[in-house]
Design brief:
Helix content: over 70%
Strand content: under 5%
Largest sheet: none
Shape: globular
Radius of gyration: 22 Å
Length: about 425
Amino acid sequence: MLTAIAIGAFALLFIGVPMWLIFLVLALFALIVQGVSMEVAVQGLTGTINNLVLLSVPGFIFAGGIMARGGMAARLINWIAALVGRVPGGLALTTISAAELFGAISGSSAATVAALGRILHSGLLKQGYDERFVLGLLTSSGAIAIIIPPSITMILFSVMTNASVGKLFLAGFIPGLLVGFCAAIYCVWYAIRHGVSAGREWDLAEIGRTTRDVFWTLGAPLIIFGGIYGGFTTPTEASMIVSVYAVVVSLMIYREITLAGVWDVLMETADLTAKLFVIVAAAGVFSWYLAAEAVPQTIVSAIEGLNLAPWMILLVINVVLLIVGMFMDPNSAVVLLAPLLWPIAQHAGVDLIHFGIIFTVNLAIGMFTPPFGLNLFVAGSLFRARSTDIVAGLMPFFVTYLVALALITYIPALSLWLPSVLMK
């Protein structure tokens, strides 16, 4: 039966059937063949999404959309550019830093690519950066939003494994900064090697002006993390509060969005949330069937028989996730594979929070990995660029992300130090 399901999954994926439908059809087929009541399917569909933490997802998506349209993202970028000043690779470093900060509010990789791309693409080209470099930088930088909390992927991982969302968010800070740092090193080297000027000087007047302009924008991450780790709000409550805050700032203070624009973002959020929740619900039924068939235990037993060292097991998990990321979106991957791979990592002695970060970084890389990384399609549509140019520009960044992934995988303290200090 499991062989038939695997063959069926690849066949349906090859002909372009959506992932949620693949999960649901194969699970229902298996349940019908084995004579299991359809009540199990209904319970699986509703049980997986009956989780309060999931309500934070539309909140963070909506807040990110309002930031992008309401002038908050633009002010953030201007402020970072003023601070970076004349450092070699300044505008490229601004892009990475903006991805870190914008990701700390939206949690969406595709939204980060779209927001930063609209503002920075032409400026990077005018400053002398090669088009392929620019495409690679913008397409890969969006993946940082998945690693920097609040991350939608981390929220889903928490739902599927019962990991603490608060600890996952804390654990993501240092790895997220490390990924950005590795990419930044390459950007500085590129700028020096190709003689790309920063194109500006440090200007205290400009720094002061942009700091005043960005003041209200910086309140958003303060609300999220101050609320969660100050014990005032849950992640779900923080997402709703920051959504209201983003609307008030964009509509009444910056005045760069109208009520019609807010409505458009609301509809886009509803559409994205519905698609995501359908995937989670359908995968819940599929995961229930796999658990009932003791698939995780079978995999763990097979791994035990190989007598692999823990570092080899982690290497195998990374390779599997990188391959999966080439063909499957992170949301589908996490709800399907987290329950299957966690017992294997647990057998290797890996901490659950550390494993969650490893899982997240792998899927972040998958966001810009050919042939089906979502950011590739966002960049292609936004910049009207050929896929060959995007992929060529991505190669150096792919290497920098892999270096960061190796460090994160084999140095657990990078993920576990902050949670151990702040959430004892």
